[in-house]
Design a protein that fits this description.
single chain; 7-stranded mixed sheet; 7 strands; elongated
Length: 151
């Protein structure tokens, strides 16, 4: 009797694909951490879409870059370390930190006050044709605002 598909041993090609997806995401976040936004063009699919919140799509790599640069440009000494990844099929989950000091310029309605910001983010990325086609970011806006406005 044949085993059900769910119980078959991992397929070597499938495992290599997962490792390739994780390597792609690692390269993506390394580029962001060093503020090399130009490198993202080669890593993202032509139909890339970024969701900064659940129902807020920003199409194209430039939609993502413009969104991220607004935050990065408000801080000095920005670090964006990738702490952990999990992957399954065409999905890669990435747990990251955002670290920086808000003293360069306004961040939305918040004036720079020299406050350190340390927040965690979880991003879910989808891979298609060896490139990132979708990125969904989830973080606690209220926590970030509280840190930046604390006395």
């Amino acid at each position: 009797m044949a085993k059900p598909v769910c119980c078959d041993p991992p397929n070597e090609e499938f495992e290599m694909s997962i490792e390739a997806n994780k390597a792609l995401v690692r390269t993506f976040y390394e580029a962001i951490d060093r503020a090399d936004f130009a490198a993202l063009d080669d890593l993202c699919h032509k139909d890339f879409v970024f969701y900064s919140q659940v129902d807020t799509p920003k199409p194209g790599v430039m939609g993502f870059v413009n969104s991220e640069k607004a935050a990065f440009d408000a801080f000095e000494s920005v670090r964006f370390p990738l702490e952990q990844m999990v992957a399954e099929g065409d999905k890669v989950g990435a747990y990251l930190l955002f670290l920086g000091k808000n003293q360069i310029r306004n961040l939305g309605d918040l004036k720079p006050r020299g406050k350190d910001l340390r927040i965690s983010l979880f991003c879910l990325l989808t891979i298609k044709d060896g490139k990132i086609i979708e990125k969904r970011a989830h973080f606690d806006n209220a926590d970030a605002r509280a840190q930046l406005t604390a006395p």
